[in-house]
Amino acid sequence: MTHSQTYTVRWAELDPNGHMRHSAYADFAADQRVHWLASLGFDVKKFAELRLGPILFREETKYLKELHGGEQIKVDGRVTGGTPDGARWTIEHTIYKADGRVAATVTVDGAWLDLDRRKLTVPPTELAQALAVEG
């Protein structure tokens, strides 16, 4: 399943060269993930109740086209890999310019952390199923 969010590149996301700074790409990808999880019923409050949190092991960004202030962008996220129990996952984000060209991809590898034990854990079945890789 792919989930999308749209955004406008703000002044605060620009670097001195007048285009979107490198870390803003990761910020948009993270925001899209948070909205996506909330749309699946796993918002910040639910994670707090479950004493569960997502963590990242790797984040890789490929920059393809510049983005500038005021541009409308779309950020898609889709699960591209993971373990059968949902404990570990890979999500690929594609960031599109308004004309549909791909501006960047952000790929993250992550897992779920039991916030009380501070150990990796398996997520609830509903979350594992919602984020399963489609075959």
From TrEMBL:
Source taxon at top rank: Bacteria
SUPFAM superfamilies cross-referenced by the UniProt entry: Thioesterase/thiol ester dehydrase-isomerase
InterPro entries attached to this UniProt entry: 4-hydroxybenzoyl-CoA_TE, HotDog_dom_sf
Organism: Hymenobacter ginsengisoli
Name under which the protein is recorded: Acyl-CoA thioesterase
Database matches in Gene3D superfamilies: Hotdog Thioesterase
One Pfam assignment: 4HBT_2
